[in-house]
Amino acid sequence: MKFFSNYKYWIINFIGWILFAFLMLTLDKLSYGKDVSINTINYLLVEGFLCGFLGFVLSFIILYFIENYFDIGNYSKQDIYKLIGVIIVTQVLYHILLWPILNIPVRHFFERDLNLTLIQKLTNVPHFLAYYVVWLFVILTLKLVHHINTIKVKQLQLEANLKEAQLNTLKGQINPHFMFNSLNNIRGLMLEDVGKARNMLTNLSETLRYSLTKSDVNSISLEDELEMVENYIEISKIQFEDRLQYETHIDDASLEKKIPPMIIQMLVENALKHGISNLKRGGKVSLSTQIEDGLLQIKVANSGTLQNNTSTTQLGLQNIKRRLELLYGNKATFTLKEIESQVIATIKIPLV
Questions:
Q1: Looking at the whole model, is its pTM more than 0.90?
Q2: Which of 173, 199, 259, 338 can bridge 306 by disulfide, Cβ–Cβ 3.0-4.6 Å?
Q3: CA 308 – CA 144 distance, rounded (Å)
Q4: Domain assignment present for 226
Q5: pLDDT at 309
Q6: The pLDDT of residue 291
Q7: CA 16, 19, 23, 26 torsion: positive or negative?
Q8: Does 338 fall in a domain?
């Protein structure tokens, strides 16, 4: 924030100096005077204006130094000494110019010269110095507030950039993981059933297309995500055959709600890889959604037992938790628990 080139500052600063001089000088003298003549009143008004105007003009010397040589966020003792030196120089100029200037209205209203001794002039130094101290306090306070606000804005921008980078990193962990698993399954089918392998490639192509088109956004509709999950299930059924049962219970009111892309797919993939694949007879995966207490609840349940000791499981769970935290803070929750030979993963997302 540059005051020197801001015309609004010029106007406010000018009015401030004049009013301050009238209050501290003109009105003060008038309040102690008795039977004050009209010439005295006129002189005091002119005196207040001239003192304020001179202070306004010379204040730009200090302001120029502050804006070009004094960093409010990173100053040293030498900078403070220099600032004090500039103020002293300004005060010397102020008093050198002030008395000859005030002598003009004295001659006009009283037809005499302003004859003040050196002692009388020096006794006025603290009075006029107070003007600059007050002005300097206001300027430095405004500069400091602006500096703090700038730091806050930059910090928020850095946090936003960091979150975006972290989200992109987490998304980058999803796509290769899913693709490599699917390619391995296709490789296993090539010699057994070419038709199934061809169908699996088609489904994989559609899934990857979805993944690539949605990877640059942080939210999509639940309905779009469900289409992708259905496609993923079709790929998985080729591998698991009749060992996989899949059912859904979707609340129609939740279809248009926004969720992070690929997050349900990760839950389903985790249920298949660490649940159904470990059961000889296979099992069932159930996906349900509902809106409750202002939250979108997504639940994926699968047959099996909870296995938290595998690194891939931990990576997937941490991925989900971290994405929810980055997008929603503490307003979203993710839980994973085992109930009656079923592993139930539940995500609750605030409706915005």
A1: no
A2: 338
A3: 51
A4: yes
A5: 54
A6: 93
A7: positive
A8: yes
